[in-house]
Amino acid sequence: MSKSLMNTDAVRELLHKAAGLDNEAGDPRFKRIIHRLASDACRLIEDFEVTPTEFWTAMSYIAELGRSGEVGLLVPGLGVEHFLDLRMDEEERRAGLGGGTPRTIEGPLYLSDAPLAEGEARLDQDPEQGEALFMEGQVRDTDGRPVPGAIVDVWHANTKGGYSFFDPSQSAWNLRRRIRTDAEGRYRFRSIIPAGYGVPPDGPTAKLLTAIGRHGQRPAHIHFFVEAPGYRKLTTQINLAGDRYLYEDFAFGTRDGLIAEAEHHEDSTEIKERGLNEPFSTIQFDFTLNREESSLPDAVVVREHAKAA
Ligand code: MBD
Ligand code: FE
User: Which 3 state secondary structure label does DSSP give 234?
Assistant: First the structure.
């Protein structure tokens, strides 16, 4: 099978019509996108000599991916969510913005409307043998001025790599809070050191990754949205230094400037001062927000989120 059907008038006409390009109704840009999508699928089938059985296997896979709720997991795994970040970075650079904390992927496990706290919060609610973590820092603008009243929306996994709500063994809102920065732009919270995340081993994402010789592991990380009026919303994460997957994140979320060193404290006086019986860790991390710039695409990404009842 060497003759190209793609370059025949019959197939050209088929794809043109299939995308609604021969009518006046509908949305012109959307038609062009659908035309490209269907054409690329046909070209792929032709170039790789995809058999009908292979094709329908792929369609079953997509349907299964949807049913499993793992669309948002495969997308970062294939590097596409990071690509969106690279594009936004580029547009900001072209608009002259720079100096803000790097963005990185949101991932699929955010839950909106976490409990709101003033200045400080405790995130861990469930009994777990996790090492206590005290994290604090300041939100500033690119001129170094503190940003009071910023909302630091933080979420992370427990010691088994699970996120509350998605992991029904955890209590509602465990390891999720919104913290409003104080008059000096500071936030702080107490939590536990998270474990890295691994994709569900029996799901469709793991199936695809295995088939291309990859793993589905992420380094231990903590997610943040940082928002304040007049500033571009920051979507980011810190990744914990020393994790074996730090530079092998299956989701490509690790970036320079987002690697945080957790300082381990074993001194018994310090332990007592914190009201603890065991060693603990501290992380100091400041966030720098870019000014809002009306010419840029919105930094607030509208996407479907799970809603806790
Ligand atoms: C995560 O916790 C995550 O942050 C991403 C990007 C993908 C899967 C799980
Ligand atoms: Fe995550």
Answer: strand
